[in-house]
Design a protein that fits this description.
The chain is mainly α. Helix content is about 55%, strand content about 10%. The chain has three domains: about 170 residues, no CATH class; about 55 residues; about 40 residues, no CATH class. It has a three-stranded antiparallel beta sheet with strand order 5-7-6, with no helix packed on it. The chain has a two-stranded antiparallel ribbon with strand order 1-2. One of its GO terms (cellular component) is COP9 signalosome.
């Protein structure tokens, strides 16, 4: 669409040069210049031509009445519509090329302001005799890159679905204060929205920091509880941490005293207790009965080593 606007400005430049030349002094010459500019198939913007002092000279009271309407006609081509042309008296009659151009420009304005864009509304606004003429006009606008649209004749009601409009309509000078007011209001609303967003972002960050601190506190309490739970069974069983072994792990000592090598000493004492038997050669010569007990019973069969034997006998 920007390329379309650039092409339209480029097409208008020859007419601007003619308007600024020294020969452009006659009202008839100016009227012919306006007619040629509005009839050219490539021209769609006219603000620069309107600003020319030569064109503005038609506002002079000395301008003949037959040429006074040409300035108003050029203003309608710049920002007006087909309906405005029909409603304004004493305007020059349009050629076929001018009529097509003004209808195309009016279609741009209607596409930007009217929703939905029905067939009936367009044929009335553009004074088209039939639906076929409307479809031909819309197709011409599409191929000229003035609009991006799709015809929907089968819908109820039939509509023209416009999705993009070329920025080719000039702005009426009287509408500038209203546009400035609307833009100022829009800027104020944008500032309020930005302030609300910043306040919401600050609130979310504060809540996130509080939640993080709460999670850290909960994690610390949980770790302390786990440590207390792990130490509780050992304390109930009377097990205390002993000195560290060579591997670096603490040893555990049973609660009762004397554990360790004391168990081996007791077993040795049990063997020395008098159980009614005596050893041979231990001061008893007479034996009521004697038997040899092989202390190596249960040893591996076929062992070449001999086990010591104890001769036990019951005292008579």
């Amino acid at each position: 669409m920007d390329q379309t606007h650039a092409k339209a400005l480029e097409a208008l430049q020859p007419f601007i040069h003619l308007a600024n030349s020294t020969s452009a002094t006659s009202p008839r010459f100016i009227a012919n210049l306006i007619t040629n500019a509005t009839s050219n198939p490539q021209t769609y913007v006219f603000a620069e031509l309107l600003e020319s002092p030569t064109i503005q000279s038609l506002r002079s009271p000395d301008t003949p009445a037959e040429f006074q309407g040409y300035l108003t006609l050029l203003e309608i081509f710049a920002w007006g519509t087909w309906q405005e042309y029909q409603a304004t008296p004493n305007l020059p009659k349009l050629s076929a090329e001018q009529a097509l151009k003004l209808r195309l420009l009016s279609l741009l304005s209607l596409s930007a302001t009217t929703k939905p864009l029905t067939y009936s509304a367009l044929t009335t606004a553009l004074s088209l005799p039939s639906t076929a003429d409307l479809e031909s006009l819309v197709t011409t606008a599409i191929y000229a890159s003035l609009i991006t649209a799709r015809l929907s004749p089968a819908t109820n009601p039939p509509t023209v679905n416009v999705t993009a409009v070329a920025p080719l309509r000039d702005v009426q000078p009287q509408s500038l204060p209203k546009m400035i007011s609307l833009l100022t209001e829009w800027e104020t609303r944008c500032g309020e929205v930005v302030a609300d967003l910043e306040a919401e972002i600050a609130r979310i960050k504060t809540d996130a920091a509080k939640h993080h601190a709460k999670e850290q506190s909960h994690q610390i309490l949980l770790e302390e509880a786990v440590q207390r739970q792990a130490a509780s069974p050992l304390e109930d069983a009377g097990v205390t941490a002993g000195p560290r072994s060579r591997g670096g792990k603490p040893g555990l000592n049973a609660g009762r005293r004397g554990a360790g090598s004391g168990g081996n000493k007791r077993e040795a004492d049990d063997f020395d207790e008098d159980d009614g038997f005596f050893e041979a050669g231990d001061g008893g010569a007479e034996l009521g009965s004697r038997m040899d007990i092989d202390e190596g019973a249960g040893s591996r069969a076929g062992s070449s080593s001999r086990h010591s034997k104890r001769v036990l006998g019951r005292m008579s």
